[in-house]
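User: C-alpha cells for both sequences below?

Assistant:
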Amino acid sequence: MSLDREDILNHVDGVVRIIKLVFAVVLLSPFIFYLLTKVDFEHSEEVVEVVETPLIENGIDLASGLIVDDNYELVNGTCSACHSIDLVTQNRATREGWKDLIVWMQQTQKLWDLGDNEALILDYLEKNYAPKQQGRRAPLKDIEWYEL
C-alpha cells in the first residue's frame, strides 16, 4: 500500500488538529479546575441587599455636592443621568432660567419629558440654586493695609 503526498498531508493535518486540541485543553484545564474549586454547587449564598445611606455634612450630600432638601435625590438622579452634577451646583438661575435650560436640553440635548417631576425639580432648583444677591465674592474684611 503506497501513500501519495495528499494522503500524507491529510494525515499530518489530522495529527496537527489533535495536537492543537490537546494543547488547548492543557492550557485551559488549570483555569477550569480553579473555577470549579470556587463554586459551591450544594450551597447557595443568601443575597443581601446593601442600602447605602448618603453621607451628609453641613447640609451637603458629599457624594453629589447637592444641597440636601426635598427632592435633591430626584434632581441628582435626573441630572446626573446625562452630565456631572457640577453643572448644577456651579450655576444659579431663577425658576424661569432653570425652565429655559430644561427646554434647551430637551430641544438640543435629547433630554426626555420630565412629566410631573419637572415641577419638583424646578422647586428644588429655585429654592437652592437661585441667583445670589452679592457680587463675585464677599468683600475683604479685617485687612491691615500697608503703604507702598
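Moving on to the next sequence.
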Amino acid sequence: MRRFIFVVMLSFSAAFIGCNKTTEQPQTLPAGAHVHADGTVHVGDHGAVHDVDGWCVEHEVMEKICSLCSSKAAAEFKKNGDWCKEHDRAESQCFICDPSRKEKSIAQYEAQYGKKPPKNPQ
C-alpha cells in the first residue's frame, strides 16, 4: 500500500513539475499593425500601416487626416464636401483622379519633418 501511495504521489509531483513550464505565445498582430518603440501597437481603422512620425505609409498622407484609415477624418472630409465618390476617399487625397496630389501630400510631410516620408515596405 505504501508503495502504491508513493507511486501516486510521485506521478502527481511529476505532472505538476512538468506543468509549471510556461511557453509564451507570440502576440499575433492584425494585418498592417506595427509596434512603436515604446511597445504600443498601432493600426488604423482598417489595418493600414502607419509610421511613428504621423505618416500613413500605406496611403501616403498624414496619418491624422488619412480618409482611408480614420473614419473620423473621412466624416470630416465628407461634411466639407471634399469626397471622391468614385474612389471612396477624400478628393484632396485621391491620387487616382489627380496624381499630383501625392506630391503635395509628400511636401506637407517634408515641410513638417525636414525629411522624406517613409516608404511602404510592401
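User: Anything stand out in the second?

Assistant: Residues 41-117 form one domain.
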